[in-house]
Amino acid sequence: MLVWSVQNTIVRDRLLEGHVHRVPWLQVGAADRKPFEAMADAMRAAGTEFETAPIWAWRGEGSNAAMAEVCQMLLSERDREADLVILRLQVPAGLAHLSSYSRWQDFYLGGDGVQTWSEMAEADDDASQVTLPHLEPSWLVESLPVPPPLY
User: Fold this and answer.
1) Neighbouring C-alpha atoms within 13 Å toward the C-beta of 145
2) Residues 21, 39: Cα–Cα separation, whole Å
3) Is 86:9 a contact under the CB 8 Å cutoff?
4) 34-70, pLDDT tens digit by residue?
5) What's the per-residue H, E or C state across 122-137?
6) CA 38 to CA 121: how far, in whole Å?
7) Spatial contact of 27 and 83, defined as CB atoms under 8 Å apart
8) Which long-range contacts (CB under 8 A, 24 or more apart) does 107-114 make?
9) Distance from CA of residue 106 to its chain's centroid?
10) What are phi and psi of 27, to 5 degrees?
11) C-beta separation of 91 from 3 below 8 A
12) Are 74 and 146 in contact, with CB atoms under 8 Å apart?
């Protein structure tokens, strides 16, 4: 499955050096901990075993317009000052956990009800969000610059 993810250049460089990238739970801020744990629990319930925090990606080739739109939505000005790149990755479908970004945001922002994200993806047209347990060096297809802000 082809996906793309916004990552720091350090992640790209480590992948190019042959290292697997995992996100330690210590790097997840307190405000994000509960929703990230809920996503990790859903991934485990779907059969993916791992002990680190999930890594977010987006399904598809990532057209310039799609990447620009997602980056506009997700990246703050401060984020854009960081050394970020877009990684295109070819990941095993069995490790790619699809879910609805809009329903995830509802939950993340305090919405009620916890469903498995997979069930949401099947019931929703907005199933482009992908979470992964880690990134493997062999998955890296290419690295691209983050598109400039749309406005």
Assistant:
1) 4
2) 18
3) no
4) 889 988 998 998 899 999 999 999 987 767 777 777 7
5) HHCCCCCEEEECCECH
6) 15
7) no
8) 107/35, 107/38, 108/35, 114/38
9) 17
10) -85, -5
11) yes
12) no
